[in-house]
Amino acid sequence: MKANGFLFAVVVVAASPALSIASGFPVFQITSNPAGQMDAAIWGDLVVWEDYRDAGPAIYGKHLSTGPEFPISTSAAHEGDPAVSGSVVVWRDSRSSWPNIYGKNLAGGSDFPIATSSLYTEKPDISGDTVVWADQRNANWDIYGKDLSSGQEFQIWGPTDPWGYKDQRYPAISGNLVVWVDYRNQISGGPPNADIYGKDISTGSEFAVCTAASYQKAPDISGNIVVWHDYRNGNYDIYAKDLSSGEEFQVTTNEASQYNPAISGSIVVWGDERNGGLDIYGKDIFSGAEFLIASNAGRPDISGNTVVWQDNRNGNLDIYGAYIPEPATLSLLAIGGLALIRRKK
Ligand SMILES: [Ca+2]
Ligand SMILES: [Ca+2]
Ligand SMILES: [Ca+2]
Ligand SMILES: [Ca+2]
Fold first, then answer.
1. Ligand 1 centroid from CA 281, angstroms
2. Which whole-number Å values give the CA distances from 135 to 118, 207, 225, 250, in the listed order?
3. Closest ligand, as measured to the CA of 161
4. Each residue's pLDDT tens digit, 241-273
5. Confidence (pTM)
């Protein structure tokens, strides 16, 4: 069903670029503190973010269904870049001088260290019990992981792998599939190049996701679908690949920049400069419906049909959210929009 739906979506996208909904959706405010709240991540109804209300940037969170906001980690050091899966929140933490990876299970217990490399670590992501991050312990960037249930740390791509001595960064994980930005094909003195590679950590098999010319960066993954931003056209667009079929397709074609995508199920969201400033757009890759979510906003994340982002409408950064209508409703809205366009001719 998924493969069929996906092929259908590709046909619709290719044939009907006019499918768009420009009105946006009703949004709701998640934080109101006058300090800055940014870099939100969401899993289910749990939203977490980096928060500047305390002396040192901290991690706060909120259950959308119950509220209110609550502190998660508030050491005097800098905590940032959170990710969440289930009740476990992970983040980058500078309490022991170098930025390390810490976590907390909101179901009980206090902060615990996950990675304490003696050099930089960054960009944690989590799916179930598995945490992944980028790690400079080998004097270049590699990808490491840890099974929180066993406490076992493992190398996902590192110095003993082909091209492991070059940089691998910005991992994302969904189930057993880890994807990352890989500089193995960057030729010294050659044109800028970064690619997306991945690994199934249950089988150990590695695979290329995209090795097109120029930059492919900022991957995210949901199920078998990987999204990233891509500079092959001379401006940033969002691309995607279905790892089960091997089919790659272009999500955005607008000549302005679209970047930093996040995906959940069939919904992709991203930052978009087509209107001059930075807005958040989304697309249901099954129906092909593309829609404006919020203006003057950035860094979206999505779980199910709930999108969250950082928003400067109050003169300081707050976290806002919106619920994306069901794909069937989106399709009807998009078809209605297309009918209106046709009537004007
Ligand atoms: Ca490396
Ligand atoms: Ca490339
Ligand atoms: Ca573009
Ligand atoms: Ca604020």
1. 33
2. 10, 20, 25, 31
3. 1
4. 999 999 999 999 999 999 999 999 999 999 999
5. 0.90
